[in-house]
Amino acid sequence: MIARERYMKVVKPLIGNEFIKIITGVRRSGKSVLLEQIREVIKTEYDNPNVIYLNFESFTNRKYLNNPDLFYGFLAENSAKNEKTYYFFDEIQLVQEWEAIINSLRVDFDADIYVTGSNASILSGEMATLLSGRYVQIEVYPFSFKEYVELKKIEIHDQTAINQAFADYMYLGGMPSVVGQTAPDDSKLQELSSIYDSILLRDISLRIPKGNQEILDTLALLLMDSITSEVNLNKIKNRLKDVGFNINSETLKNYMAKMDQAYLFYTVEHANIRGSERLRANSKYYTVDNGLWHSQIESQGTNLGNQLENLVFIELKRRGYKVKFGEINGKEIDFVASKNGNKEYYQVTYEIPRDSNREIENLLEIPDNYLKTLIVGVDNGTRSVEGVNVLPIKEWLLSE
């Protein structure tokens, strides 16, 4: 079990305080393992702490799902009266009125509360009303490449091993249960396909009207087939119509939003860079893991630039950036990344053509002094061109 140090650095200063720690992220990304690691820290650092842990996907706890009074009664009976109780709830969104229960624990007891959820809807509705300003969200992603290398115990200076690890990572991604396997690629892709199906069935389908599973499946594949490309709502509608599904715009928007909420896809809007003539209505879509993508869309050895672009997007999100795509003077900027009041610009290309500086020229069009970086798949030794940083993808991923 690899320690998720990136997330533990965020969580450790919060242990014992009144904020509710809400751990979110795509199904099977490691939220439960992180919860276990937090419990172990508390058990190690505190003398005989009172810890309550419940996983609501376990059959054992199904009696609580539709009976909030029974659930709260159990918690009240087992909570410490004169000292802190540490509560850990896995997939809490499955419990009716969970928001009110969590709020009551906060009010009635000396409570330190940690919950996980595989759907962003956990952060809306009643929760936003009852717990506004009283929680911290920690979004968990599949393994980064740096975590992948650490898990595989690969020496960073072993370039041959790093190259092979990166090829595997770019194709099969970083889902923890897959990274830990020694099985053939076909078996790993089957596991990834199973995870993908589970996300659709358990985190999206249950939130749309019954009988529309086939539409949802088709829409998800259309989006997977459009990763890194601009997506126009009307074109998606027409493609669905071509295969026999008539769906209105509002329903389509709702289904696409549900996929975002399950952390399977990320919708990326257009940034208005100074000098741009217009703000585009189209969005781009990226997916949380290259392995999930390849379990549905076979593209090994092709579209390497798109695969790199998706990796860079997820890594920027993992590092806490808000990400948009941009355009300036008719030239596209892959990513406009913002964090803590600063902006950074990124272009991604598999290889810099010998007879073209297009990717560099796009960045040079931007009339400000924020950091500009070109990330490349093939390292030709160049590290800077006219003030633009040039970084090989592996070096950038391992530099976090």
TrEMBL record:
One Pfam family it belongs to: AAA_14
The name this protein goes by in its record: ATP-binding protein
Keyword Nucleotide-binding: yes
Domain DUF4143 as annotated: residue spans: 202-346
Annotated ranges, domain AAA: 19-148
Gene Ontology molecular function: ATP binding
Organism annotation: Periweissella cryptocerci
Signal peptide, first to last residue: none
Top-rank lineage group of the source organism: Bacteria
InterPro entries: AAA_14, DUF4143, P-loop_NTPase
Keywords: ATP-binding, Nucleotide-binding
PANTHER family the UniProt entry points to: ATPASE
